[in-house]
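Q: I'm building a small set of examples for a reading group on sequence design. Run inverse folding on the following structure and report the sequence directly after it, with nothing in between.
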């Protein structure tokens, strides 16, 4: 199957054809770092990390850029409340961002640009828009002439006439037209600011992504992505600024993930259902959170609840258990235990499952259906392990396929030592001690070791091939 992406711009699935053969230029709008990111922010981070992983799996060289907004009104307020400077607030929460998303197995972008580090490029971008007649200075502010860009509204599919009628804007005497949006904000007394041709100030929100995408990826990029809430006005304004300046298409494909709901209601501070990712990760395994986020197609809304997280944990445990069963059987199997009559049939089944997995991911990155294929792979692995005679080749293929699927989706099948506090060597030593205790008929010590491991979520299973264990 050919890879297809649902393009917000056309509202259709389109065959993915990169601008340059074998290469993908991808920009994802990052967070404003005035606090810990919320669980809704985590969704695009996980979704588009998975998109990047699959594109890489498909053989593309992906240049992935995701920015930090490290100066704006929210950071200025946070700096005042925390009695810190704006750069200190940004540094604190950029560090917290990486701490949290690394737990989710999210890979760093090739570049994480920051507004404060790219100020010269932003100012140059605004200056060029003024020179072309698309922007104007007024009392130290700079605004974009929205009506000068004829295609304004094409991403959100809102004609200018409707916007003029329906958009709520505060009257601003400095604007030529109330639909014009801010490119540069004159500094208020005591605010952090930068010198510019229009006086001291700082950029508006929309201009930063246009300038940084152009700097690090060029005039036209393959994929621009973010949350559904960014379609208007943020991404609409990016298109206007960028295409007004260059006269070229800004992004070929626009991708947007659906909203996050909390217990069935849209997450918002006013409803009191605002949850940070940091809080969630203190209560739940990051692997489970990632699995949960991918269990629903990225364009659909997703509801966050404790019950649904528990369902995700149960589902992930099914996959982990199957993986550990295969891994254990492979470790204890004889190296020359191969050539069973059904070997070719099983290998053919595995090839078909790999094709199904790829077909689902090719269909607009349908991770929900790809996980269903993963469940089928685990089911067949468990069936295969009931056979008395097995093939090393088939076992290795099962293990390799599970590892491949998990790597594309970005979660881990092997339970890490940090989850129990015991290393593999510690567990093996305790199992050896338990075996010795049983041989010496010291059943009290044997049971004590089993119970102690159980408390650490280490599950023992006595089999014909010996005692096997897994992390729960």
């Amino acid at each position: 199957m050919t890879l297809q992406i649902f393009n917000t711009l056309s509202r259709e699935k389109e065959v993915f054809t990169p601008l340059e053969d074998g290469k993908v230029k991808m920009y994802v709008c990052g967070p404003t770092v005035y606090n810990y990111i919320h669980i809704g922010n985590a969704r695009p981070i996980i979704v588009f990390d998975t998109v990047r992983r699959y594109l890489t799996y498909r053989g593309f060289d992906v240049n992935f850029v995701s920015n930090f907004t490290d100066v704006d009104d929210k950071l200025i307020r946070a700096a005042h409340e925390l009695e810190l400077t704006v750069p200190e607030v940004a540094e604190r929460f950029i560090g917290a961002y990486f701490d949290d998303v690394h737990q989710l197995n999210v890979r760093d972008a090739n570049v994480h640009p920051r507004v404060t580090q790219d100020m010269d490029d932003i100012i140059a971008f605004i200056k060029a828009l003024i020179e072309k007649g698309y922007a104007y200075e007024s009392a130290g502010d700079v605004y974009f002439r929205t009506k000068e860009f004829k295609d304004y509204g094409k991403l959100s599919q809102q004609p200018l006439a409707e916007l003029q009628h329906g958009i709520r804007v505060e009257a601003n005497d400095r604007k030529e037209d109330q639909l014009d949006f801010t490119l540069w904000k004159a500094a208020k007394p005591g605010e952090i600011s930068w010198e510019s041709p229009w006086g001291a100030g700082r950029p508006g929100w929309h201009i930063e992504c246009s300038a940084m995408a152009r700097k690090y990826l060029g005039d036209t990029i393959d994929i621009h992505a973010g949350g559904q809430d960014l379609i208007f006005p943020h991404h609409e304004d990016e298109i206007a600024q960028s295409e007004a300046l260059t006269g070229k298409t800004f992004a070929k494909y626009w991708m947007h993930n659906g909203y996050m709901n909390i217990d069935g209601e849209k997450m918002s501070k006013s409803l009191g259902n605002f949850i940070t990712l940091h809080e969630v990760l203190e209560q739940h395994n990051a692997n489970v959170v990632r699995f949960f986020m991918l269990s629903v197609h990225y364009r659909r809304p997703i509801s966050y609840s404790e019950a649904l997280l528990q369902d995700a944990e149960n589902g992930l445990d099914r996959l982990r258990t199957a993986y550990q069963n295969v891994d254990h059987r492979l470790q204890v199997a004889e190296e020359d235990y191969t050539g069973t009559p059904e070997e070719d049939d099983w290998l053919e089944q595995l090839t078909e499952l790999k094709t199904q997995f790829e077909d689902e991911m090719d269909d607009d990155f349908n991770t929900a259906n790809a996980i269903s294929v993963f469940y089928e792979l685990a089911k067949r692995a468990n069936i295969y392990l009931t056979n008395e005679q097995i093939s090393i080749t088939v076992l290795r293929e099962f293990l390799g396929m599970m590892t491949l699927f998990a790597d594309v989706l970005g979660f881990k099948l092997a339970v890490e030592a940090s989850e129990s506090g015991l290393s593999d060597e510690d567990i093996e030593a305790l199992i050896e001690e338990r075996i010795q205790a049983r041989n010496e008929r010291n059943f009290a010590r044997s049971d004590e070791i089993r119970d102690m491991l159980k408390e650490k979520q280490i599950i023992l299973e006595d089999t014909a091939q010996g005692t096997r264990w897994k992390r729960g």
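The longest helix spans residues 306-332.
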